[in-house]
Amino acid sequence: MRFDLDMVGAFVPGIAIWLVGGLLVFLGLDAILTRWDFYRLFWNPPLARFALFAGLFCGLGLLASM
């Protein structure tokens, strides 16, 4: 299912919805994991944060394709 959004005369790919959705879920989960000091378990915390976001974004994309 491919679609585009018309936002003020500019067409935005539909994947932008999943990007924003993944970002919102990531921000909430990241705040919880930071409060629990979860990232101290990783050698490179920014890389762990990126991997978490990438996993969420891809997961939402897979759910959308079902």
Task: Output the keywords.
elongated, two-stranded antiparallel sheet, 66 residues, alpha+beta, 2 helices
How would you portray this structure in words?
Helix 1 crosses helix 2 (45-65). The longest helix has 21 residues, at 15-35. The protein is elongated. It has two helices and two strands; from the N terminus they run E-E-H-H. It has 66 residues and is α+β, with helices and mostly antiparallel strands.
Write a brief caption for the model.
The chain has 66 residues and is α+β, with helices and mostly antiparallel strands. The protein has helices at 15-35, 45-65; strands spanning 4-7, 10-13. It has two helices and two strands.
What order do the helices and strands come in, and which of them pair?
Layout: E1 4-7, E2 10-13, H1 15-35, H2 45-65
Antiparallel strand pairs: 1-2
Intertermini distance: 10 Å
Instruction: Supply the number of helical segments.
Output: 2
- Total strands: 2
H-E string:
EEHH
- The average pLDDT score comes to 90
In terms of DSSP E residues, the strand content is 5-15%
The strand line-up of the biggest sheet is: 1-2
Major sheet:
2 strands, antiparallel
Derived from helix and strand composition plus strand pairing, the structural class reads alpha+beta
Oligomer category = single chain
In percent, how helical is the residue content?
Answer: 55-70%
What coarse outline follows from CA principal-axis ratios?
elongated
Radius of gyration: 15 Å
Q: Which consecutive residue ranges, at least 5 long each, have pLDDT under 50?
A: none
